[in-house]
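Technical note accompanying the year-one report. For the benefit of new consortium partners, we illustrate the data format agreed upon in the data management plan: each record pairs a sequence with a structure-token string. No post-processing was applied to the example shown here.
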Amino acid sequence: MSEKRRIVVTSALPYANGDIHLGHLVEYIQTDFWVRFQKMRGNACVYICADDTHGTPIMIRAAKEGIAPEDLIARSHATHLKDFTDFEVAFDNYYSTNSPENKALSEQFFAAMEKSGGVTKRTTPQLYCEHCKMFLPDRFVKGVCPKCGAEGQYGDSCDKCGSTYAAEELGNPVCTTCGGTPVVKDSEHLYFELEPQHDYLQQWIPGHTTSDVSNKLLEWFSEPLRGWCISRAAPYFGFQIPGYPDKYFYVWVDAPIGYLASLQNWCDKNGQKFADWWQNPKAERYHFIGKDIIRFHCLFWPGMLHTAGFEQPNKIFVHGFLTVNGEKMSKSKGTFVNARTYLDHLPASALRYYYACKLGGTTDDMDLNLQDFVQRVNGDMVGKITNLASRGAQMLNKNLEGRMGALDAEGQELVALARSRAEVIAQHYEDRRFSQVPVEVAKIADAANEYFDRREPWKTVKLPDGAETTRTTLTTILNVFRILAIYLKPILPAYAEKVAALFGEASYGWDDIAKTVESTTIGKYEYLATRIDAKQVEAMIEKAKVKPADSGEVAHESRASKNKDKAAKPAEAAAAVAAPALKPEVAFADFEKLDLRIGKVVACEIVPKSAKLLKFTLDCGVLGTRTIFSGIRGAYPDPAALIGKEVLFIANLAPRKMSVGVSEGMILYAGEPGKSGGVLAPLAEAGAGTPAT
């Protein structure tokens, strides 16, 4: 056996001033998938995180509540960790940036930065609130945008025109804490100069980020890199900068250092050496982050590490934002859902499964379509996969004393089929193409369900000599299901533990896929997953709703409404293209709004009780997987013939709720019923997810 890998994995640190919500969970759940997979493979993998605890917002909120900042962050830490634990996110160490380890490391980094000559002093104008007796951070001041004149804009960027600017450029500025009018004062601050590392960072970035991320970052290298302000004036909750009694480290200085501090804390508690993990050239280090904090992790952080003599991360994995029903999360619509609100209404396993279905390892935004969420959980996770165990185990316990038999030749073939996908699925996990794992599992589950229905054990068990035939059938089904549970363990860990208990086995590792379970007695079946009622989702949304006046998101709502209006036009254009009769003509500019993509058919099946519909599951490359219903059964009576083919589809068509499920796009078809051809585009060399031009 080859030497196992030593891996340190981090997720971005959640801020201690707010609750964990479903958007945050996109990051922590996918990181957890990857870490659990690495551990199942036998690799030494440590998952590190912490609360980000410093900054003015923490100080002000604590003052309003009449408590110390330390009490506020302790309370947030407990709440955050409880939410993560209940969502089955298993950190090896969840710490705090307000720690002695982080203070010592921050001072060590700063000393190295000063010694390198990279720290400079500059006097800059800043807004100061004389009532609050403090310089105002960008998000603590609002005013008139200096570029477009929009009112009520924050001190760093305009929601209306997208411009960025300095807070002191705002017109009619107002302190958001007290409502007073701030004044402009000069303040001396410390800067970390990045230009001396221009060449180093320019070479480092492409090898440690994906091409879309590096291309964006490298746009800044056409001119000298600007210095980065690393200090904040008192009063401030954070670490004081050595030698500067009225200055504190900016929160984004000690936050990434918090990764190292949390790792140091884990090492101290577990008898490990920090140098064997982060400073070990043979070890691997990976950050999972959102695309909104690329600049800090891919530019400032590598510069700090390089200056201080620390090893760099091997890769920085960047993901997109979460939208709900195709729009930005909204408090007034109830789609800005906190983790605890979700858990009060729905099981964590359902969201973990759905996120797995949608995550493709890219920076593209991910949509939580609530109708599709219910359909996928009920149809695939419960009805297709879990139903194998439910029917098999309960029938075995009820009719055959719970005792498994041996596989026959047909059973061995089906189990071998399930086992043959192990390395393909493993590679999907390794590459963070999590959306492909449920696709592979569903294909195996389809084969197992077809075997079960064809063998009709509910009939053979009633025959005088049918006990052993039935036992063989159920033994096959349960062995296949066991393999599927192992494949899904990184996604559904508690689910997999229940499966292991059913078979009387220890917690599964990846190598357990090779084992066949025969001639043993299973335990009592414990329900693994239950169907979701749409009313549960509705109740969750209703609970999460906040009136716009209370949510502070008027501008946000305006943008969402605009996006919704824009999304409606491609749908109208698509309807015009697909309609059998000629409809009013559309301008070419409207047609250009359609996003035509190529998808690979990974599954295609007849929709029961429908004479026209086929249900397609498409591998859409960077877009993940999609389910599309298409009324072309007349042209393709044998849907299996379409598997592996490529089709042209409209990717930005709004999801459509149908009686049979939610359709996430439209497959383009030209031809006559009863005649083959027409649907499939001759684009095999392009690859799934490729835009069609």
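Partners are asked to follow this layout when depositing records. The two ends are 48 Å apart (CA to CA).
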